[in-house]
Design goal:
2 domains, binds zinc ion, alpha/beta, Zincin-like, Neutral Protease, domain 2
């Protein structure tokens, strides 16, 4: 779950300057919608060819995410999104104090990626997740989104990047257990800008429940409706009004229906 680590880093990440590479040098490469900076020292550790390949694969994965986000969510930011690929040691040294467990990347004004030799499925999922934060950042134009929406959509989008989508079995178990114990959050409780202030267990549940809520909307009302709602919300800055228009129900009603699933399932 890269997301909740990312949010802790929003401020720290944004402060990371591009001249903080191992020796202050970054190489630059563009694709249609992304500008990638890579610590040139990776060239020495991974070998020039390996690192170029890695850069290319990261950009390819991001362009794929861009097209998918356009198709599924109508997100197509036109400003280039900056991606920084770090030497793995530099990544650890700069961010490990802030990270609670190892991650391959996070978003904080830019997409930050731990360099490597191959773009694994795990990294593809991270890139898809962080692309949503970058796209929302570009398209919500200064509006601070509630975390349940920002993280819920990012988790939902990430899950469909590899495999069939939906909640992981661990996340589904956590949500079901919380529902059975009457411990689910209200949407209001998940409406801070980040889950960064929560402890690890509460944050895990917050991510899983936000994902489950977006999943519910996609399953119950279809992906096309989800896209229309996201578009309308970003345009108007009003999630509830966009919900009333697109779902013919306000958020409180949608939340009730989401919670009712657990009752009817006997959980
Ligand atoms: Zn996230």
């Amino acid at each position: 779950m890269p997301g909740w680590v990312m949010v802790l880093l929003l401020s720290a990440g944004a402060a990371v300057a591009l001249d903080e590479g191992a020796d202050g040098k970054f190489s630059k490469r563009d694709s249609s919608h992304f500008v990638l900076f890579q610590d040139v020292d990776i060239d020495q550790s991974a070998g020039l060819r390996g690192s170029r390949r890695f850069e290319q694969d990261v950009l390819e994965a991001l362009e794929t995410a861009y097209r998918r986000a356009d198709r599924l969510l109508g997100l197509r930011p036109d400003r280039p999104i900056t991606v920084v690929v770090y030497d793995p040691d530099i990544f650890e040294a700069q961010f490990s104090g802030l990270l609670k467990y190892p991650v391959a990347g996070f978003y904080g004004g830019r997409i930050h990626v731990r360099g490597g030799e191959v773009v694994s499925d795990a990294l593809v999922r991270v890139l898809n997740h962080e692309h949503i934060h970058a796209a929302f950042d570009a398209e919500a134009s200064g509006w601070i989104l509630p975390a349940w929406f920002n993280e819920g959509v990012a988790e939902w989008f990430e899950a469909g990047a590899t495999g069939r989508g939906g909640l992981t079995s661990g996340a589904a178990r956590a949500v079901n257990a919380a529902a059975a114990g009457g411990m689910l959050f209200s949407l209001a409780e998940l409406s801070a800008p980040t889950f960064g202030g929560m402890g690890p267990d509460r944050a895990r549940l917050a991510y899983a429940q936000s994902h489950a809520f977006i999943n519910y909307l996609a399953d119950a009302h279809g992906e096309r409706r989800l896209r229309e709602w996201v578009r309308a919300a970003l345009r108007s800055g009003d999630l509830d009004r966009a919900a009333r228009r697109n779902y013919r129900a306000d958020l409180a009603t949608l939340e009730e229906r989401f919670l009712a699933q657990f009752v009817s399932r006997g959980n």
